[in-house]
């Protein structure tokens, strides 16, 4: 851990002992995280209901695994189980689950549904993504930036793509931590205006919305991408691919060769940004669409530690909301 990361305060996740053996020589992401006797079990005897109206790998597995590793029991409730708002009203789901479970985590379509869940539940409700935002992802992203760059404050984070739920959460983060956030998106695909305005009004961060990705990435510490068609928008995928064409050129091999005459196309985008730039993506990625294989597999891509950090930040969130 020490070799790859300046942050190493999570031995409880590696060997199960907060004050146990020295784990600093372990390699995260290579299996050790799963092994060993665990004595730190703050969630012992507790249960978490996880409602998924949409598909998931990272959110489901990181929440379930994290909760179980710390002693709890997590229940997966898929789209056919609860059918919130269809089979049963959200306010009823909230009150019934609160009587069985200590936490509710939910991935939903309409943002209003998570607000309603939180309103009627009597236990903490954690947002695992809605059409509007994805706060757990952005907390993991912030931790990853701190681990790889040293700090988030003062860095330049450039998001290239659709002005979607990920961008709204970046804007929330920019409302509490000072950094330079740029969203480069095609015209007509900008983030929600009110959310941008609200973040700007805090005066905490420099926030720019532009349709010029080439200019935007210059000097970036992080270049960040996400799918052009989010869950719930897949029927728009073909139309969106058309609309985002200029943006694919930033990542596309042929287009870069043709337009920019850059030979090292695998690192072409990052060359525009500069040698300091890291590549991030919340995943799942559509390789060859919003990002090429070369960019995602390059040494400066930190997408996998980023994915791993979902579990660590969510464990911290769950400890916090349970007052542990
Ligand atoms: N990044 C993320 O939330 O991934 P999943 O959709 O797989 O949960
Ligand atoms: N914007 C994407 C994020 C997936 C983690 C979506 O909502 O599908």
TrEMBL record:
EC annotation?
Answer: 2.1.3.3
Report the residue ranges that make up the Aspartate/ornithine carbamoyltransferase Asp/Orn-binding domain in this protein.
Answer: 153-320
Q: Which protein, by its recorded name, is this? A: ornithine carbamoyltransferase
UniProt cross-references to InterPro entries, sorted A to Z: Asp/Orn_carbamoyltranf_P-bd, Asp/Orn_carbamoylTrfase, Asp/Orn_carbamoylTrfase_sf, Asp_carbamoyltransf_Asp/Orn-bd, Orn/put_carbamltrans
Entries under Pfam families matching the protein = OTCace (PF00185), OTCace_N (PF02729)
State the organism named in the record: Actinidia rufa
Report the family membership.
Answer: Belongs to the aspartate/ornithine carbamoyltransferase superfamily. OTCase family.
Q: Which NCBIfam families match?
A: orni_carb_tr, PRK00779.1
Residues in domain Aspartate/ornithine carbamoyltransferase carbamoyl-P binding? Answer: 39-147
Q: Name one GO molecular function term.
A: amino acid binding
A biological-process GO annotation: citrulline biosynthetic process
- Keywords, sorted A to Z: Transferase
